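Researcher: I'm preparing a figure for a lab meeting and need a structural model of a single chain. I don't have an experimental structure, so a prediction will have to do for now. The sequence is pasted below. Please return the structure as tokens so I can convert it later.
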Amino acid sequence: MPKALCLTSLVASILVLVLFLADAAMGILGMQDFAPLGAASLLMDITFAIVGGIMVYMSWKTYREQR
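Model: Understood. Here is the structure written out token by token.
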């Protein structure tokens, strides 16, 4: 069960990372109409992308310790 929880958190954190990176990239490129969150705040996108990256790292390290 702990492995399943680690993989679930890994997938969720990857989704967060990709979502906010895509929103930031589309906001910078001037494609606000196509941005997933409407490119409302670049600071928010960067902050959540960093947090998502930290979560990916922590989930991966925890999963590797479960082996």
